[in-house]
């Protein structure tokens, strides 16, 4: 009997009345794992009411006490570490090591939240005028919501939920419908940690559930990660009810390889950037710009290394790259490959029809490499979100930077070089928020901000670090005089 998932509202697991169910499928084996409801508007409103009713008591809970809940939540996540990682492999398709990294990064975000008594400290100044003191304190907002994507089903929800509730807010968690089992496991850990009813709520669903959150005047902030088109829409809808919104969108990440780069040392990082999580990372490199005469060496060694990658089911010990996460993404990546061919790019390596023999029906696409790509092509301009790389030539570093800066996106960029001068010039001029120097995936640790730019971000405050605390709190300035 396939499990039909329940929402978690006001401290209880509740069956949805919706008759619309989406199947959750293992993308490697096509095994049916569960069914998830498209939660109704009324059920979302019940979750919001639960969170609103719980807010004041939770807001009045001292930050040090809230931090103790975060420690307990962290311990429960650690106890479930391997189970959650295996769930991610089954419903998303990552390899086991990639899934473990997903969970580990999420736990680091919760560990950051345990320091909330320090992060929520305000400030004071005596005698701003004679006999008058002025101070400010940081206070929570109220009900907050997280709309999270499929590509990091543990890490990204844990960017948001622990920090929101540590700051004194209550939370509505709506995960992507293709990875609901990871969300269920995270909320089960929160339940075991003993959060009061209504502080954490989990609802599934599609656009109707999202709109119910966005148009509710009781929801004060929303965090989102997904496509830039949807990020812009959510940002605009949130503004209509005076919500805070932090909406991360897509990327098109450029990696520059200089003639003085240590190519042999760079290749493993480039392979990981291109093929890690089957290319389904917002920090994945998609366009490699070879400067000067390094092109031929780069192409030969990169393709050789890519062809050695072993594709397979993430729970198999020899699997180095898993499938695309779902059929929709598989079809999208296949369409981009065909688009590149139709627009005249040269297909140097074709990753289609290279499925593992054990999993002939899985959503597998091998490393695919294009040459002779021009800036007018879709595969140059748009995010593919799969293991598809465009190799491009540039004569100088300035030309490479100018090429990268034409992108509408500004999530990440990287350079491989032995020159400090080139590295500094690249970091100074590149229009991207996360920059790698001889690093293929420039993913900041949680106490640094995840600094997306341009159409990769809608909102003022990013995820991670002090910015996430500022997002989930509001300042109150108090001016005092005593007679």
Note the main attributes of this structure.
alpha/beta; about 25% strand
Written description of the protein model:
- This protein is α/β, with parallel strands linked by helices and 483 residues long.
- It is built from 16 helices and 23 strands.
- The protein has helices spanning 41-59, 63-79, 81-92, 96-113, 116-119, 155-166, 180-193, 207-214, 228-240, 263-275, 295-307, 327-342, 378-381, 397-404, 420-429, 465-471; strands spanning 3-4, 7-9, 12-14, 21-25, 32-37, 123-129, 132-140, 143-147, 170-174, 200-202, 219-225, 244-248, 253-257, 285-291, 346-349, 368-371, 388-394, 409-410, 412-416, 434-437, 453-454, 457-458, 473-481.
- It has a seven-stranded mixed sheet with strand order 15-16-17-14-13-19-20, sandwiched between helices. A six-stranded mixed sheet has the order 10-9-8-11-12-22, with helices on both faces.
- The model has no long low-confidence stretch (mean pLDDT 97).
Could you provide a short overview of the structure?
With 483 residues, the protein is an alpha/beta fold. Helices cover 39% and strands 23% of the residues. It has 16 helices and 23 strands.
């Amino acid at each position: 009997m396939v499990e039909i998932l329940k929402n978690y509202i006001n401290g209880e697991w509740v069956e949805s009345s919706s008759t619309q169910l989406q199947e959750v499928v293992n993308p490697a084996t096509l095994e049916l794992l569960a069914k998830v409801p498209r939660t109704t508007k009324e059920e979302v409103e019940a979750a919001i009411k639960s969170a609103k009713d719980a807010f004041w008591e939770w807001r009045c809970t001292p930050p040090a006490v809230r931090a103790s809940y975060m420690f307990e939540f962290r311990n429960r996540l650690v106890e479930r570490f391997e189970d959650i990682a295996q769930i991610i492999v089954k419903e998303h398709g990552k390899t086991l090591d990639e899934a473990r990294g997903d969970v580990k990064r999420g736990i680091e975000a919760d560990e950051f939240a345990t320091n909330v008594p320090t992060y929520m400290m305000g400030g004071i100044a005596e005698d701003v005028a004679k006999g008058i003191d002025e101070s400010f304190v940081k206070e929570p907002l109220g009900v907050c919501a997280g709309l999270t994507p499929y590509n990091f089903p543990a890490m990204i929800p844990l960017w948001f939920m622990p920090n929101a509730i540590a700051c004194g807010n209550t939370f509505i968690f709506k995960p992507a419908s293709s990875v609901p089992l990871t969300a269920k496991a995270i909320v089960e850990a929160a339940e075991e940690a003993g959060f009061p009813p209504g502080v954490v709520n989990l609802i599934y669903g599609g656009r109707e559930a999202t709109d119910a959150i966005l148009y509710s005047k009781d929801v004060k902030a929303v965090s989102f990660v997904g496509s830039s088109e949807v990020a812009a829409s959510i940002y605009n809808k949130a503004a209509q009810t005076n919500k805070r919104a932090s909406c991360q969108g897509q990327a098109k990440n450029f990696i520059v390889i200089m003639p003085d780069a240590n190519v042999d040392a760079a290749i493993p990082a480039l392979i990981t950037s291109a093929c890690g999580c089957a290319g389904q990372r917002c920090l994945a490199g998609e366009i490699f710009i070879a400067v000067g005469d390094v092109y031929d060496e780069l192409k030969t060694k990169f393709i050789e290394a890519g062809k050695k990658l072993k594709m397979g089911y993430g729970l198999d010990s020899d699997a180095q790259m898993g499938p695309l996460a779902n059929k929709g993404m598989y079809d999208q990546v296949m369409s981009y490959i065909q688009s590149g061919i139709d627009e005249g790019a040269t297909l140097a390596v074709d990753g289609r029809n290279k499925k593992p023999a054990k999993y002939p029906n899985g959503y597998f696409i091998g490393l695919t490499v294009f040459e002779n790509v021009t800036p007018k092509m879709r595969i140059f301009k748009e995010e593919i979100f799969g293991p598809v790389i465009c190799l491009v030539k540039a004569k100088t570093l300035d030309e490479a930077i100018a090429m990268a800066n034409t992108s509408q996106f500004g999530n990440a960029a990287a350079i491989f070089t032995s020159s400090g001068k080139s590295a500094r010039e690249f970091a100074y001029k590149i229009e991207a928020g996360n920059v790698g120097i001889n690093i293929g995936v420039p993913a900041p640790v949680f106490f640094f901000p995840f600094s997306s730019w341009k159409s990769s971000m809608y909102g003022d405050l990013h995820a991670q670090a002090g910015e996430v605390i500022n997002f989930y709190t509001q300042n109150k300035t108090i001016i005092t005089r005593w007679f």
